[in-house]
Write the structure tokens for this entry.
Amino acid sequence: MVFAGAKIPPLKVRGREGYFLKKGGGLGDYFIETFGQVYRMHKIGDNVWTYAAPADPRELAALGFANVATAQHVLVKVVNREQGTETHRITRVTTVNWKDKEGKERWLQYVSLQGFHKRAASQKESGNDLFRAPLSPAFGRRSGASQQG
């Protein structure tokens, strides 16, 4: 994984994607797995998938969040064929609710992961991954991208 415009060294992320099997052996729901977490995707269009999941407290702490009440990721993945190559375009939005140092409740929603990966029909694995971890508006630091689609 390469983070565009960031001073973060390239990172190779291992992951799997596939389908759960139904009792009769047919294909069930689509899933992705990264960093040991399995995410069941929900199809919302011909080539559009999404999931929602709690944000990892370690990721939030690394961004400077403390006293977090709730934090949620929502990921959208659009799969297209671009110049003959299967391309997965991915954006994750994170919403965080926390109390600041004065005890005031705060809310922030920001793009915490955005990028793509490409896979030619003949490739099982692609090195053509590009993910950008945008600046967190609250703290002006790069977020630690923890999900790949």
Helices lie at 57-62.
